[in-house]
Amino acid sequence: MRRWFSQVRAGMDDRGSGAGAVIIFALLFLSLAAFVIDGGMSISKRERAADIAEQAARYAAQDIDREALYDNEGGPAPINFENCDARVKAFAREMDMTGPDIAATHCVAADVNQVQVQVQLTYSPVFTGMFYGGDVTVRGEAVAENEVG
Predict the structure, then answer these.
(1) Cα(121)–Cα(101) distance, rounded to whole angstroms?
(2) What is the layout of strands, in order, in the sheet containing 114-123?
(3) Where are the alpha helices (DSSP H) in the chain?
(4) pLDDT (tens digit per residue) in 45-61
(5) DSSP annotation string for 58-73
(6) pTM above 0.70, yes or no
(7) Which residues, in sequence order, are bridge partners of residue 49?
(8) 3-state SS, residue 127
(9) What is the Cα–Cα distance from 99 to 56, expressed in whole angstroms?
(10) What angle separates helix 19-61 from helix 84-94, to the nearest 10 degrees?
C-alpha cells in the first residue's frame, strides 16, 4: 500500500497547474473584448441613426412650396409636408440602408413649418451575438424647421 501511495504521489507534480488560470483569463479577456467591441458598435450605430435622421429631416424640409414663397416675399417658406414620407424613404435608399430599415424609416410628424423624422438601423453584434441571438435595432430621431433668413 505504501508503495502504491508513493507512486501516485510521485505522479502528482505541478505540471499543468497554470493551464486552468490561463484558460480562465483568456475567457475573461475575450468576454471583455466582446463587450468593448460590441458596445462601441452599438454607440456608433446609434450615432449613425441620429445623423441619418438629421440629414433626412433636412432633405424633407428642403421641399418647399416655391409659389407660396414667391407670392409672400420675405414671409415664411412653407414645407410641402405631404411629400415628407416619400422624400425620407428616398433619402434612406440613397444611404444604402436595408429594405426593412427603409420601410421602418418615416416621418413622425410634419407640417408647413417643420418635419420630424425617425430612422431605424439594424446590425448584427460581432461577439455578443453568439450569446444573445438576433440582430439589434437602433433608432434615431430629428426635427428640421424651416427658417427664412
Answers:
(1) 6
(2) 106-110, 114-123, 136-145
(3) 2-11, 19-61, 66-71, 84-94, 99-104
(4) 999 999 999 999 999 99
(5) HHHHT-B-HHHHHHTT
(6) yes
(7) none
(8) coil
(9) 16
(10) 140
